[in-house]
Amino acid sequence: MRIFNRVKLSLYFKLTLIVIIWGVLINLSIFIYTRYSSDLKSPHMFPIIMDRLSEYMAKDIGYPPDTTKAKQFAEELKLSIRYISPEFNWATSWDVPTVEDLKSDKRFVEKFDSRNPVRAKFEDRGYAVIKDPRGLYIVGIPLPEESLNIQRALIMILIMTSVILLSLYFVIRKLLSPVKKLVKVVEDIGAGNFDVELNTKRRDEFGDLARSIDSMKNNLKELINSKEQLLIDVSHELRTPLTRVKLGLALNSPPEKINEDIKEIEFLISSLLEGYKNDIALLKENFYISDLVETIKEENEIYKDRVEVINHTDKNYSICADIQKVIIILRNLIQNSIKYSEPGSKIKVTINSKPPFTEFTVEDSGIGIDESEKEKIFEPFYRSDLSRSKKTGGYGLGLYIVKRYVALHEGQITVDSELGKGTKITFTIKNS
Q1: Which of 49, 293, 324, 414 has a Cα at 20 to 30 A from 106?
Q2: Is the separation of the CB atoms in 362 and 347 below 8 Å?
Q3: CB-based contact 82:90 (threshold 8 Å)
C-alpha cells in the first residue's frame, strides 16, 4: 500500500496520467467528430430518410421513377438507389445489391414478406427495401465517412483540441510551479542567503528535491559557521603562543620555552594544511606490527602507566601500508582518549589480524560521545567541546584526518560509545 501511495504521488505518474487523459480526450473528440459532424444525424437518420423517401417517391419520383429526379434525390441525400419491376430495372450505381443479394441477410428474409419498409445489411452497408405493387426500391444508406461535413468537422476538432491543450497547459503549469521557486532558492543559497524557506511538505519528486536542498542548505550553513568559528579559534590559538614568543624574546626567556611555543604554532599550521590536502599520497612499505607497537610505546612514554598496547598478531606479522600515516591515526586517537578521560584511567590499544585487513581498536573509559554526535565527530572543524578549554584544546581536525587516512588504506572506521562510560573506536587497514 505504501509503494502504491508513493507511485500515486510520483511526478512521473502524474505526467503519465495527464498524457493518458489527454490521449483519451483526443480520441473522444475524434469520436464526436465522426459521430456528430455528419449532415445526416446517425441516431435519427434511418426514420427521417424513410419518411422523406416515401414522400418523394409518392409525389415526385413515382413508379417507375423519373430517373433525373431520382439522381438528384440520391445526390442530395448521398444515397444509392435501385428500382426493380417487371418492366423497368434501374440503379444510380450497379453496385447496389439486388433482392437476391440481400437474402444473404437472414433477418431480411424473415421480415421481407411481413414489413414495409424492410431493413437489410449487405457488405457492411445498410439498405432499406420499399415494396409497392408497381415496383420495389432498394435504397443504400450512406456510410458515416460519406456523409461528413469536413469543414464543420475541422472546426469541431480545432475547438476541442484547443480546449484540451489549454487545460493541459494550466495543469502542467500548476504541477511544475515549484521549479521557479526552487531555482530562486538555489540562487539565494548561492548568494550566501541561508534563511530561505522551502516547501518540504510535497510528497512527489519536487518534495524530495526541496528536502535535499534544505538539507544541503543546513549543511552548508553549518560548515560555513564551523569555518568562521575555526578562523576565530585559530586566530585566538595563534595569538596566545605568539604573545608568549614575543614576551619570551623581550624577557630573554630560555630558548627551550620559546621553541615549545613555536612547535605549537607549527602543529596548528600543519594540521590545517593536512586537513585541506586533496592529493595525499601513500608511501607504502612493509613493516612489522611489533615495530609499530614499540613506536607507539615510545611516543607515549610519559603515559606508560595509562596506555596499554595489546598485540594479538604473530611476532613476524607484517603489513604493507604507509607507516607514518598509521602512526598519525593511532597518535590522534590515543591523544583524544587521553584528553577526554580522567587522569589515571586506562587507554587500551588492541591489534588483531583479520585478513585481508589488520584491525586496530582504541578504547577508553572517558566521558563518552552523545549518540547525536557520533556521525559529526569526523567532520572537519567539529568539536563537541565548544568551550575549547586548555585541557581539551584542539582544532577539530584530528579525527577528520584519521578518517581520511583510513579511507586511503581502503579501511573502515566505527565508533561505539556511551555517555559517562567511555568510547571504543575501531579502524581497519588493508594489508596491501
Answers
A1: 49
A2: yes
A3: yes
Q: Residue 138, class by beta-carbon neighbours within 10 Å (0-12 exposed, 13-18 middle, 19+ buried)? A: buried
C-alpha cell at 10: 510520483
6: its cell numbers: 508513493
* Segment 354-411, tens digit of pLDDT: 999 999 999 999 999 888 888 788 876 666 654 444 444 555 677 888 998 999 999 9
Single-letter amino acid code for the residue at 158: L
Task: Count CA within 13 A, CB hemisphere, residue 62.
Answer: 8
142: its cell numbers: 450512406
- Is the previous residue joined to 142 through a cis bond, with omega within 30 degrees of 0? no
Residue whose C-alpha cell reads 602512526 in the numeric block: 327
The backbone torsions φ and ψ at residue 256, rounded to the nearest 5 degrees and listed phi first, read: -60, -40
DSSP H or E segment with residue 322: none
- Could you give the C-alpha distances from 425 to 219, 332, 333, 348, 391, in angstroms and in order? 25, 11, 8, 11, 21
Sorted by sequence, the CB contacts under 8 Å of residue 144 that are 6+ apart come out as: 34, 35, 38, 42
Each as own residue / partner, the long-range contacts of residues 68-77 (CB below 8 Å, 24 or more positions apart, any chain) are: 77/40, 77/49, 77/52, 77/142
Distance, CA of 113 to CA of 116 (rounded, Å)? 8
Spatial CA neighbour of 69 closest among 60, 79, 77, 59: 60
Three-state DSSP class for residue 132: strand
pLDDT in tens, 70-107: 888 778 777 788 888 888 888 888 888 888 888 888 88
For residues 349 and 360, the answer to whether their CB atoms sit within 8 Å is yes
DSSP string across 165-193 = HHHHHHHHHHHTTHHHHHHHHHHHHHTT-
Cβ contact 81:92 at 8 Å = yes
> Scanning the structure block, which residue is given the C-alpha cell 585487513?
357
As given in the structure block, the three cell numbers for residue 225 are 559557521
- Torsion angle defined by CA atoms of residues 265, 266, 267 and 269, in that order, rounded to the nearest 10 degrees: 90
Q: Global pTM?
A: 0.46
* CA–CA dist 27, 20 (Å, integer): 11
Contact 327, 334 (CB under 8 A): no
Comparing CA positions, the residue from 175, 179, 171 lying closest to residue 209 is 179
Q: Which residues contact 200 (CB under 8 A, 6 or more apart)?
A: 207, 210, 211, 214
Q: Are 129 and 100 in contact, with CB atoms under 8 Å apart?
A: no
